[in-house]
Amino acid sequence: AWDQADLGAIREYTTPELFAELERERRRLEGERQFTEVVTLDAELARIHRVGDAAVASVAFSGLIREEEGSPASRFHEIWHVQHSWQTREGDWLITGIQQATGHR
């Protein structure tokens, strides 16, 4: 969705606050070709806790990513924070933030 500038798709899985930030960033990059290829991906649930009426989970992603076609893949490590209503199983988990983590495994 990011590479295609599909803001509608991005809005579906982010909180309104994060969407506003991502929309500003993507519009700033308008006209620049975006390319992302995830070569390998590992995920680990780092933390889950309750904040008010929401369950908040932090998921650590790491692996290899290629951000230019034909270029060598490089290591990445990010933590994605997602939330869901504490009261129900219904509905999607929404991304509330993406954090670039320091130090790679």
Query: Can you give the helix content as a percent range?
Result: 10-25%
How many alpha or pi helices? 2
- Side by side, the strands of the main sheet go 1-2-3-4
Q: Name the poorly predicted regions.
A: none
The proportion of strand residues reads 35-45%
Structural class: alpha+beta
End-to-end CA span: 27 Å
Order of helices and strands: HHEEEE
Radius of gyration: 15 Å
> What's the overall average pLDDT, rounded?
93
Question: How many strands appear in the DSSP assignment?
Answer: 4
What characterizes the major β-sheet?
4 strands, antiparallel
The general outline is globular
SSE blueprint:
Layout lengths: L6 H6 L3 H13 L8 E15 L2 E13 L7 E12 L8 E7 L5
Antiparallel strand pairs: 1-2, 2-3, 3-4
Question: Could you give a quick summary of the protein structure above?
Answer:
Helix content is 18%, strand content 45%. The chain has helices at 7-12, 16-28; strands at residues 37-51, 54-66, 74-85, 94-100. The longest helix is centred in the N-terminal third of the chain and has 13 residues, at 16-28.
